[in-house]
Protein: Lipopolysaccharide assembly protein B
Organism: Aquicella siphonis
Amino acid sequence: MKLIGFFLVLVCIAIAWFLGYRARPRAESARKINVPRDYLIGLNFLLNEETDKAVDVFIKMLEVDSDTVETHLAVGKLFRRRGEVDRAIRIHQNLIARPQLEKIYREQSLYELGQDYLSAGVLDRAERIFLELANAKPHSAQALKTLIDIYQQEKDWDKAVHAAIKYESVAKVNMQPVIAHYYCELGETALNRKQYDMAFDYFEKALHADKSCVRASLLQAKVLMEQDEHKKALPYLKKIKDQNPRYLSESIELLASCYEKLGEEDKLVYYLKQLLEEHPRVPVVLILAERIRKRKGDKVAANFVADYVRRYPSLRGLYIFVNIYISNAEGRAREDLHILQNLMKNLLATKPDYQCSSCGFSGKTLHWQCPGCKQWSTMMPVHGLQEETA
């Protein structure tokens, strides 16, 4: 790494000397060429591994004008990419400090300085720079996009909403599904503080931004359930199958809880049977199997699950079947089923429950923002045979 840095600064000083030499009048260049003293000083610093001082020499040698500013910017980027952010900052600050620098180059230098601070994790300084650039036309879209990233890192969801709305207008892209999640984040904070009315309003705003926001519907149901309004919560949970049926599994246990609190088990079974025909999902089978088992016994429940697994093969479905069937097995059959049960349990422990449709990140927990690619609403529950290959 030190050797790379040596040659990088050496090249910079060589470029500075060349550009300075090229800019001389012809009459002067016709004279005997003398190596500039600063060039020799810079080389001496490099040989003594004093790279910072060599950078200072480079900055001093290379006069900033329309011919050389791109060189400064390129060198600054190189330092940043190599992780030498302090040196990149010095070069970009030197550019901005030049009063004669054209506006377009000043804004470009400011943008690069903002990226330097971002790389260094100095988010407050980066934010100030990108707020200034948000109103500078050539950089406004990228500056706003970067501000959104900063606010997401800081979990400043109010600012994220405002930046996203402005970015949507400037870049002509649809940010409403993302804005819906920002409102959900704000609503969850209010919900955790038991500020139910405020939380519900935020979730309403989320659905206004994106009517297919499953997260908002789930959270509205939770607000009502925490206030023992289970009957009112049901419609919010039931509409998830129309918003995005892939997330049905997130609502099933809440649905069952609501019906149980209301003492309406028959209605639950009726609804789940209808739901299973439209959207076959293992969580629906699990809850139905438990109800059938209580009412009609293990054998009927096992037959119900076996029928489902034949139609929609899945490791999780088979695991439910074995768990029910094993209670009535005896002798060698019971021992074999125990072996199979443990094998499937261990296999399921290694399989993800959720996977990102964008980058492939997988895990056992639902993240509304993928930890891998940082996209929203791309983490999906894994269903069917996909669970065995994910």
User: Anything to note?
Assistant: Residues 241 and 248 are 6 Å apart (CA to CA). Residues 352-389 form one domain. Strands lie at 354-356, 362-363, 379-381.
